[in-house]
Design a protein that fits this description.
homodimer, about 300 residues, UDP-N-acetylmuramoyl-L-alanine:D-glutamate ligase, six-stranded mixed sheet, 10 helices, about 35% helix, about 25% strand, kinase (chains A, B), kinase activity (chains A, B), transferase (chains A, B), PfkB family carbohydrate kinase (chains A, B), Ribokinase-like (chains A, B)
């Protein structure tokens, strides 16, 4: 949970509420009741925002509020929003964060480990009891700097959700298909590789599955889209109550649909306002986007 | 029809047979009988290659062989094969090419206009009688240098097949969805925007459709993949004998499947060897790639 200052091509937005737990829990709460988050905020974090999360039935018992400033990130996006550079990162209260899972939350069945130090991700896993699915994110910083700890995490992860550059870095393999196969040997039986607006690929025991990004007429801010995707995916899995290949495939559509809302406005502005009927409509549009109208079997050639 | 010298990261391949008509006709010939091509070659073009095309029932009556050298292109690919630079282009016999459609071919119902000067594309259209579908390709060179002629062509085109950069340049609009809407106002009721390995988007009266690229473990040479896609698509449409939205959608899968073979080896090496059973198997793999196992409707939440 964090503040982001976003330098967009069309203007700068100061101290916008962000963070993986925020985006992913809002997305999941559209699909399932009783989402639980773990995190830390400073005394500068708006009480109203925590109230807003609770009104969505997001359980904030695991959110510590401590003296000091919340995590802060400042970034600048390129003109086409396809890339960004980090201008400032202040860990603040996050520097000494030790995630504590409340007793009442230890039996949480579906666990999403956001992108933090892999040792903290392992500490969370040590506090939960036999989850049905452990999904995890990570980033270039931990891949290069904490590979031994990250390998321990991978051995305990069921579903790794990373982007294509991270997959290449983690495996040392340029080709995405072979990179995913390599990563699956290290622990996660399922790997999802995100490619931004170009969609995402799932590699699991049933084979390879592709879910497109939803083509939008306007994108305002990609921040949090990946966390929204992961939160929506886990929300759908939790609602469905199983982790079968077909459930995961449909869950990717929900994650992708929610991510497509997320990028329509700055920070959590849009995702916080999405209604169930808006989501249903976009899911229907998504179904049309991939509907090829029946069988792909080759018709007999007409005589001409 | 051309010779390409390809400087790949793993070696240089001199005077490989290429050209849009070559790739697209080979792809189409896997799906329909009696593909007809129009083009020009020099006296250096291998007779064996023309014989090979004829053995595939590709009608080469419209291929002129004239004194001089065939069109030649030399390019160098980047290490990841994602981009290339042109090192040399020699028009040779192509410089004075005037496409002539043989009398027996003037009633061809499905027409694919490869990427040449838009005036030559118009000259071809003037020689065919009421085709059921006119599909066209173009490139940055004509978009910037021959916009008036290109606009005339667009007015007579039913299906424009271009890549994302060309769509942006043609429309002056960065966003792909809005770029496609703009282009559709200029003539083509259907626009397909290709995004290389990331798949392709169709915009037509039925809405928006997405067809992924097939994830491959190894890509050797992207040259001709776009032409193979277009040829496979037109071949499927010809076989099916209609141009409905659902036919076009399924046709994109065939185009994409054939393009995925094309890139597996240098030039036409791989696409020339693809068998119907290999194509069927890849189409089945494609169907699994996008199969989300039923309805996307949201299940009722289990009580927990």
């Amino acid at each position: 949970m964090a503040f982001d200052t976003l330098e967009m091509p069309y203007g700068t937005f100061e101290y916008v509420v962000g963070g993986a737990a925020t985006f992913s829990s809002i997305a999941a709460s559209l699909l399932t009741h009783g989402v639980r988050i773990v995190g830390v905020v400073g005394d500068d974090f708006p009480r109203d925002y925590l109230d807003f999360l609770r009104k969505r039935e997001i359980d904030t018992l695991g959110v510590e509020q401590v003296a000091g400033k919340s995590f802060f990130w400042r970034g600048r996006y390129s003109a086409d929003l396809a890339s960004r550079e980090t201008l400032d990162t202040q860990l603040n209260v996050f520097a000494n964060f030790q995630p504590k899972i409340p007793e009442a939350h230890r039996s949480t069945p579906y666990v999403l480990l956001g992108n933090i130090h892999p040792q903290l991700q392992l500490d969370v896993l040590d506090q939960v009891e036999k989850p049905k699915l452990v999904a995890a994110d990570t980033m270039n910083f931990w891949i290069s700097g904490e590979s031994a700890t990250l390998n321990k995490l991978l051995a305990r992860t069921d579903l790794l959700i990373i982007n294509d550059e991270e997959a290449r870095q983690l495996s040392g393999i340029d080709n995405i298909v072979r990179a995913a196969a390599d990563i699956r040997k290290r622990g996660p039986s399922r790997v999802i590789i995100k490619r931004g607006e170009f969609g995402s690929l799932l590699f699991d025991e049933a084979g390879t599955f592709f879910c497109p990004g939803y083509p939008l007429e306007e994108v305002r801010d990609p921040t949090g889209a990946g966390d929204t995707f992961a939160g929506g995916l886990l929300g759908y899995v939790t609602r469905h109550g199983d982790t079968s290949p077909s459930t995961l495939r449909r869950a990717m559509f929900y994650g992708s649909a929610l991510a497509s809302f997320c990028v329509e406005d700055v920070g959590t502005t849009r995702i916080a306002k999405v209604t169930r009927s808006e989501l249903d409509a976009r899911i229907q549009a998504f179904a049309r986007l991939v509907d090829y109208g029946g069988s792909l079997a080759l018709p007999a050639e007409e005589s001409r």
